[in-house]
Structures are given as C-alpha cells and as structure tokens.
Write a structure and sequence with these properties.
The chain has 117 residues and is an alpha+beta fold. The chain has a single domain, classed as Zincin-like (2-Layer Sandwich). The chain contains four helices and three strands, in the order αβββααα. α2 packs antiparallel against α3. The protein starts with 15 loop residues before the first helix and ends in a 10-residue tail after the last helix. The structure holds zinc ion. Zinc ion binds next to α2.
C-alpha cells in the first residue's frame, strides 16, 4: 500500500491504494479478513467474493461517490459472514450502513434472494 494510511478522497478518481485501504478499514469494523483484494473490469456486477476470501471489485467503483463505494464494499464484506441475503445479512447491513437500501436502489443492484454475489 502507498503508506499514508488514510483514505483521502481527491477530485475524481480514487487511487487503488486508497480503495484497498478503505476495504481494509471496513473489514476491520465488520471483523472479516479478506485474503486478497482485486480490482478489475467487471461487466455485470459491482463486486464478488469467493468462498476462499478473495474479493473482486469493479474498477468503475474508483470513479464513484464514496457512499456508493462504501455500500458495495460493505455488501461484499458482510457476505464473508453471511453468504445469502437473508435476515441476518440485512440486519448487519443496517448496522454498518443504515441507508444501504436506498443506495442499493440507486445503484440499480438487482439481486435475487438466493444470489451470493
Ligand atoms: Zn449480495
């Protein structure tokens, strides 16, 4: 990581290091330990998490407002605790990001209850 230890939001694009720092901060709060954090071009979703703890985020998130970025980050990290979108998932989302439902709506996230991503 770039070493300054803070998540600075500049005009425009967030750096990769700042994005990863932000993911690490959320991971500590949520008490999960992602093994790897990847940022790549993704066509149909904002992020995914594999069962072995590897997180992938859509590179477009670097261009987005912090609140949306936070929503996607928290969503994936909570999946490391709860693999579905059931009651427990929702209550954790409310605990960490009380406005997550409207953010999800604005992002156009379409997920079935059975989806794990
Ligand atoms: Zn999900």
């Amino acid at each position: 990581m770039a070493g300054n230890g803070t998540v600075a939001e500049r005009n425009g694009r967030l750096s990769l290091a700042d994005f990863k720092a932000s993911v690490s901060e959320w991971a500590q709060r949520i008490e999960v330990q992602p093994k790897e954090i990847h940022i790549r071009q993704m066509r149909n979703k904002w992020a995914s998490v594999s069962t072995n703890g590897r997180l992938s985020f859509n590179a477009e998130l670097l261009e987005m407002e912090k609140r949306y970025r936070d929503y996607v980050i928290v969503h994936e990290l909570v999946h490391m605790k709860v693999p579905n979108h059931g009651k427990l998932f929702k209550s954790l989302m409310f605990a960490f990001l009380p406005k997550w439902e409207s953010l999800a709506g604005q992002l156009g996230v379409r997920e079935s209850a059975a989806s794990s991503a």
